[in-house]
Amino acid sequence: MAKDNLTAVLYGIEDLRLEQRPIPTPKDDEVLLDMDCVGICGSDVHYLVRGRCGDFVVQKPMVIGHEASGVVSKVGSNVKHLKAGDRVAIEPGYGCRVCDFCKGGRYNLCADMIFCATPPYDGNLARHYTHPADFCYKLPPHVTMEEGALLEPLSVGVHACRRAGVGLGSEVLILGAGPIGLVTLITAKSMGAGKVVVTDLLQNRLDVAKELGADGTLVVEVGANEMEVVKKVHDLFGGEPDKTIDCSGAEATSRLSVLATRSGGCAVLVGMGASEVKLPLANALAREVDIRGVFRYCNDYPAALSLVASGKIDVKRLITHHFNIEETAEAFNTSRHGLGGAIKVMIHVQPKDKNNPK
After folding, report:
1. Contact at 8 Å (CB) between 346 and 146?
2. Locate the Enoyl reductase (ER) domain: which residues (predicted)?
3. Where are the extended beta strands (E) located within the chain?
4. Which residues have CB under 8 Å from 28's CB, separation 6+?
5. Which of 42, 83, 229, 279 is the most exposed place for a label (fewest CB within 10 A)?
6. Where in the chain is the domain with CATH 3.90.180.10?
């Protein structure tokens, strides 16, 4: 076990530093983890570049990172289901456990939610980190630590598909072929969707979508005529999708999610863009298109782990780049600029002699 606790701390816009921090001690219901893999998420990049993501604003130094896996090194006195040496995926958000939302099973809506690397709470891009044991999921031996870290974005895809009501024979339009769009694609296919079409600005990302099972793809140029895009989508389906999931968050895609969806269908908004956008609500109301929001996930990690462990889906194709924690600045630069066709950038936390993917 590393003696140091090298940690990636965001001090402000364009100010990400590596520094030593004390190794924490787990509370009675927590475990101490030797962190292994931490993926870079779009929200991490937003905090670095803009100092905020949606309504969450960085106001003090914050440890970055929330897509993670690690190895248990110590357990608190009340922890029974985990032991030292267990490899786990970390669900990074947990509620107060006593409010109506938490008791009702929708803890992602808890007003007192603690979520890694969401201001004011620290994340887990560090050598060592403590976390509530009941939000750590033991990985089967054949599931890799990289796959464990990818359960976080995959859970967003699972939650989005559940919110959309994707099922056998569903015709699903996915807007955006970034990491969240791609995990939503593979989740929709695993849930029995009959046809899935994916749109994006970049052909190389759509090429990956085709590899992962998309039945059709469409490059949409910035500023393209809205109704022409709707027609192209409908032509690809040979009709109209009954589910549309916007994984971009741009105003253009939010509008398209309503306009392209079949009357009586469901448009789910996952991507977080500007705080306020213009939507064609009269169109949605007249055609009874349900508009549903997605905020992270809840009770979706077990399903995500089952999909990976059973071999029904393969998330490893999403990982395009590997870095060590000492190379965090380079890793973020690769992710934010999409260098080398970057989709998911993975940071390996332990020292090079213990865990060096290169």
Report:
1. yes
2. 12-347
3. 6-12, 15-20, 30-39, 52-53, 56-57, 62-63, 67-75, 87-90, 93-94, 114-115, 128-132, 136-138, 171-175, 195-200, 216-219, 243-246, 266-269, 290-293, 319-324, 344-348
4. 76, 77, 78, 79
5. 83
6. 6-138+315-348
Question: What is the homologous superfamily of the domain 6-138+315-348 according to CATH?
Answer: Medium-chain alcohol dehydrogenases, catalytic domain (3.90.180.10)
CATH superfamily of 157-293: NAD(P)-binding Rossmann-like Domain (3.40.50.720)
- Mean of all residue pLDDT scores within the chain: 96
% of the chain residues with pLDDT over 90: 95
Q: Find all residues with CB under 8 Å of 101, minimum gap 6, and list them.
A: 95, 107, 108, 109, 110, 111
Distance CA 151, CA 296 (A): 12
Structure tokens, 285: 């109301």
Q: Are 196 and 302 in contact (CB under 8 A)?
A: no
Longest Cα separation, the chain: 63
Predicted TM-score of the model (pTM): 0.95
Q: Are strands 67-75 and 87-90 parallel, antiparallel or unpaired?
A: antiparallel
